[in-house]
Amino acid sequence: MLSSGLKLIDSVAQLSEKQRRERMETSLEVQPMSVRSTVLSQFEIVAKEQNKELEPLSDQLELLDSGLDSLCFAIIVARLEDLLGVDPFSGDDVVDLPVTVGDFIRFYEDVPAVAR
User: CA-CA distance, 31 to 95, in Å (whole number)?
Assistant: First the structure.
């Protein structure tokens, strides 16, 4: 009985590892349109989780007017790093920070595919 229970636990662990690897492989193949939808969905998810009223998202919407605060953006950046495999804000070459939602999305779209 104990042996079959351990086999079941091992099977679940292997399945979880396989799923994790598949997600990582999929995230490495994200195309620009997918990047856009991933970023926008994280804005919406985090706003809901943090009980923030999110303004209608458009490329021209200024981040300061979006309804999100600095904690929300920190959560979004951390999650996008997990989902997309990159943090475009961590390099030494970041000169201008994004001002609008469109700028924010382009930060992720413009990361060379090699870095993802």
Answer: 25
Cα 61 → chain centroid: 19
CA distance 112 to 65: 29
Residue 47 tokens read as 């706003």
User: 76, 43 in Cβ contact below 8 A?
Assistant: yes
Over residues 33-79, the pLDDT tens digits come to 489 999 999 999 999 999 999 999 999 999 999 999 999 999 999 99
The closest alpha carbon to 104, from 91, 90, 88, 92, belongs to 88
Determine the Cα–Cα distance for residues 78 and 73; give it in Å rounded to an integer: 8
- CA distance from start to end of the chain: 45
